[in-house]
Protein 1
Amino acid sequence: MKNLLLKKIFILSLLLIFTFVSQAQKSNWCGTVNFDQEAVKNDPSIIKKRAELEKFTKQYSLKKNLSEEDVLIIPVVFHVVHDYGEENISKEKIQAAIDILNKDYRKLNTDVYQAIPEFKDIVADVRIEFRLAKIDPDGNCTDGITRTQSLKTYDADNDIKYAIPGWDNTKYLNIWTVKSINFGAAAWSHYPGISAALDGVVSIYRYVGSGHTITHEIGHYLNLMHPWGNSNDPGLESNCDIDDYVDDTPLTIGVTNSSCNKDQISCGSLDNVQNYMDYSSCDVMFTKGQKTRMRAALNSSVSGRNNLWKQSNLEATGTNDSYASPICSPIADFYVDEKSICEGSSIQIFDNSYNSSIDAWSWSFPNGEPEISNEQNPIVTYNTPGNYPISLKVYNSSGNHTISKNNIITIVDTLMGYPAPYFEDMESSEFPESTIDNTKNWKIETFGNYSWELHSTTNNNSIRVKNYSNSLETKSILISPNINLSKFKNPENFTFNIAYAKKNSSADDELKIYVSDDCGITWKIRFLKRGSQLITNDGSIVTSEFIPKDDEWKEKKCSLTSFTNSNHIMIKFVCTSRKGNCLYIDDIKIGEKFSGVNNLNSIEKIKLNIRPNPFKFDAIIDYNLTRNSKTQIIVTNIIGNVIGKFNKEQTAGKHSLNLNSIAPNINAGIYFIKLKVNNSQTTKKIIKIK
């Protein structure tokens, strides 16, 4: 591209940083500009560093550098961030990624011959080689791969680099691989000058070992911009006015939708659509000008790029030609596909050890059958309910390593599920996990930035998912404790209250409810609503974070008929974010005919509250009546027996009543207080402790 000679170096660096950034990511798969702009906003000192680099690059490009033909070796470490899914990519796939890089940067890619004649003479052998590190920062033997189980693998952003820190960026090129990225990009990098903690490449696992995504991102890491300049908005005519500061890349508007029109002319000359830094589907080349710019970055002290390929660093990282890599000691790791099984069931545990070959395994399974094993992926049977640890020790000729994981497996008691009728209003401080009765524990699984969380308003708790802030397709899971329906006559009655509003007209959030009668091994869907089907307000769009009013709740029903007589069911709520708003759940009721609960407007305006809850000696029942009403309060125990009643005509306003005046001398346990007002009712759970 023709240099804009009238631009001053400092202005060049400002343009590098602050060119307009498009937020549309449907087809623009590189996230570099988005993440880099945010980083610069948080750390303006980057501007000065990049101005220095631009000045150095200009001086470097004017010299005749005999060193241009030296092959520069860059030590690489892959940080695989996973949740034991397919994103935990193999060593073979990572090596394939290294092989692709070395072909692309050495002009050895098999498709380079497809470069059209107009650009064949400027196709560059960049003369850069990438090698997996063989020595880690502590001097230990490594295969150049770290593996970390973390929920940060979902909807990744720059926070992942703080949660799983990279190695010294002046000695290693850090590449993180993840399950997903939080705004739909495939990968991103930062230009030189970024803080050490953020320096490196992040890529979705699918793009490792195939294609040229990482080739593109390392181009950014080595100070290349997109051919249309520093924006993520190809296709705009105004891109003809933006420079990438490379002499031989023509001005271009850029390629959209991964197309490949080799005859594209957009700014008065033929576009180099086959460039690795464009968005085409036929990228095969770097230019000689891009080679010079990248090698300038590698000769600059900005971000320590000039130390990466120094002989002393190659020796320190085990990437020099003469280094003979020993057999590394293994690092133990393992996982289970199912973390919850029924008592008397068997489960297979899978070895996930890495860093070297394994010669032997030594497992320990307290209360399991067997309790010890030397198999690689043993099968274990558990006959006693409880939460149990597992430990693994792995060996090879260079050493051994042990890992232990506490409470990794839950064995469910199929005879002692919480008996129906079951009611959960989220009002207790014991929700979601009880220290009084662990059979009542709920489980929350997070696969993004936000999952189910308690939300409090005046006299009312509920549980919600902040889809207002969640990324696209983030799943939030809430799993009930084991519930016993075997002694109850009406298991088909399962109701809950919901509140939801849309953030925009296209919001399509989804709620699914599943039921399992085999301790969570398999799940059957029983409820599915999405988008407009979930709306509980008047249908108006709520652009801010939705907080429901009393009259913005609705009751939903779900059938459990096919689970009649089951002595152990679990219920799973799965909320999927599709750019909507917050979704709330409250008052989950299972196994009782809750008559009159459809009039939720009246129920919510009653505002029943019990304090304190749990209580030791007495509790106060507070409620509010919107008009003169016939009031009835019924106290029942956990199996539905009535142990206290209150009936009275009362005037509108606030009322309070001591529980002991209705049901004196009750024993420690769980009870329900049902408030009936005219034709409406609501129920709250209370707990008396010893």
Note: Confidence is low (pLDDT under 50) at residues 1-28, 594-604.
Protein 2
Amino acid sequence: MKRSEINAAITEAKELFAQCRFRLPPWADWSVEQWKQNPDTAKWCLERQMGWDVTDFQAGRYAEFGTLLFCLRNGQQDDADGMPYAEKLMVVGESQYVPFHAHKVKMEDIIVRGGGNLVLEMFNT
């Protein structure tokens, strides 16, 4: 994806989150310099893959085959304190498709906060 496409998707997501009155953490808008000034937070976020994730799944067609995620919490697989839990904001457009994926050891809640219809296909794994 082009950086301009990624930036546009993030801008649209921020507008949607604001409309839904969902506040992102302060580091969601940090510049490179702010990340450098906060190395402990940067390390913590990097280790847990926190923040923005915009992908077209290498299809080159984001509008039809892509998604935007903002990861708020993400447990680590090697954490002995229980099952890893992830909290992610997910923006999928009306005509976007997200490919199948599964987690063998992870718990995620799926909550529709912004309206619309979420269609899932479930498999017994």
Note: The domain at 3-108 is CATH 2.60.120.10 (Jelly Rolls).
Protein 3
Amino acid sequence: MKRMLFVCIAAGFVLSLWTSWAIAQDYVGSSRCMTCHNSVNPNTGYNIWEEYMKTGHPYKLNAVSGGSPMYPDNTSPGVPAPPPGTDWSEFVYVIGGYGWKARFIKADGKIFTTTEEAQYNLETQGWVAYHYQEDKAYNESCFQCHTTGNSPDGSWNAQTADLGTFSEPGVRCEGCHGPGSDHVANPSGVKLPNQGRDLTHERCGDCHQRGGRTNAIPASGGYIKHHEQFNEMMASKHGTGLLCGTCHDTHIAGRYPEAAGEGLKAITKECSSCHPDHKIYVNGMEKNIDCIDCHMSMASKSAVGKQKGNGWEGDVKTHIFKINTDAVTKDAMFTEDGSAVALDNDGLAAVTLDFACLGCHQSKDVTWASTYAKDIHTNGIRTMPDYVGSQRCKTCHDNVNANTGYNIYEEYMKTGHPYKLNAVNGGPPTFPANTSPGVPAPPPGTEWSEFVYVIGGYGWKARF
């Protein structure tokens, strides 16, 4: 009993210290970070501030100052106008607009839902409804992953109470690294709060999940919902060994690779780094097919999903990786009510072939895809038809051809090509009349019974 009391007191003391430390930290704003990190970093070899400001995170929430928000060069085409029938002066923020879609925050702190043209989709350059005519307050439960330094206390908007507050719009430096006041005061002596795994994995999981850090993957409308990469990883064998930072450099633009500095890539590790033997051969030849084309198919939807022939395509790549090679459609990928991705007995998910294959092979079906997908890395793909033999050709071509004016089969069988290799059946091969004089005997001292083929013998020579 005494020991348990001691443990509880000690734990409470440690928690008190941690809470005091956490409270002591203040958010200083990304402009303070820029003062030291706006030059080439000797560890990364690039300007961290400059490259990060080309990624999508800083533009999760964008202030409206009488016109469309600005985005970095070579990234978003932008949001050309507010919802039809409105004016920019009615809005204070745009949610997103960098990668997939844009939604609009009114001056009263509410999300615009009034008409069926409330969300702008970048891919289609068109408008769709968003929670049509619902009263949607832009509160902390919404903006916690769109902002830096969010808190449920107070209100960022003077017209509507209890919305919560934030220190900066967008996910800026401290949004991932944690509040930086102590670090700014003593850069060499105090590290930022989030380091190592907490920064490269757990912090990502704060926002890139729905419903908690579990392997349950919410879905809707026949697609995986967006920003669920953490859930997907938990439903994948990769979730036990890989961190987000294993493959991603989040300081580099990934949605728009052409925006990144010369030689820089957001994806720092290729699949082949760990899977060097997983290649695909087509008709015996190695093909340069990108692993992610199949294993990270567009099975998730942020703004736009569409049917492509017999295939389906969302607008976000999945992190499930595993492919279900059975001849089943996407209905088998989701639970009966369509609200989540179905899991196997080991708690793992898999993507069906109408996402993995038929997005490209649109005229085919899952039965066709399944014949190739099973053991594809072992057996490869054979697209060439089977050989049927010249006797099958003869059935149609052993008569006068209307185009050539002669019997193609008959004439071809007088040429030398059919006799490049000739079977031996106890005697010399036979050749067409008025052609080769033939091979009268096998090599001296031998008999025909010793041989199975004669090479040539039609035109110049014979070998045995």
Note: The mean pLDDT is 92.
Protein 4
Amino acid sequence: MDRSVLIKMSCKKHKGFMSRIHMEMEKMNLCEEDIRVMPCGSNALDITILAQDF
């Protein structure tokens, strides 16, 4: 059975945030299907991730 999750987060913009997100997703046994990153002001990001359990 496929299980999908939708994760939304906001964070400050900084180097290496995408690799950190990927590492945390692997720890939770989740595989990213789609990632959307949108700027929110000059210092923040709005991130939406669609992931599946593997």
Note: Helices lie at 17-27.
